[in-house]
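Protocol step 4 of 6: structure prediction from sequence.
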Amino acid sequence: MFSTKSFSLGITGVINVLFETVTVYFRTKHVEVRALLIAGLTGMDNGTFLAEGSPRELVEKYAGSEMVETDNTPEVVACLTEAGIPYEVAGDQIQVTTGDPRALAKTLLDRCRNSRVITRPATLEDVFLKLTGRALRE
């Protein structure tokens, strides 16, 4: 029996050889697999083309380099608005795209008095959410 991870890693070599000679259409819902295996990506939603490029190009263009996530509270919203920091609401979280996650995290912790701040690299999932304006679905 193969796990998704071992299967993906096992076919990486085969796909890389195929990429040298033919175009391969590969469909998967696993974002991390897409980023490892593909040279180019066309994002679609309900039959509509959203964007095209390499995973790196799409992330840089639509999601930036880093994401900072924190709780969606009135205090945090007021603090970010007052500081002129653009943000997006994603349910019970606030997400901020930034090139300097440490400085933003410090602002959230010190100025906004928030105790929960997560920093992470932006991903293809962030690109999809930004382009469609809604949640992922299975």
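Step 5 (inspection) to follow. The chain has a mean pLDDT of 78.
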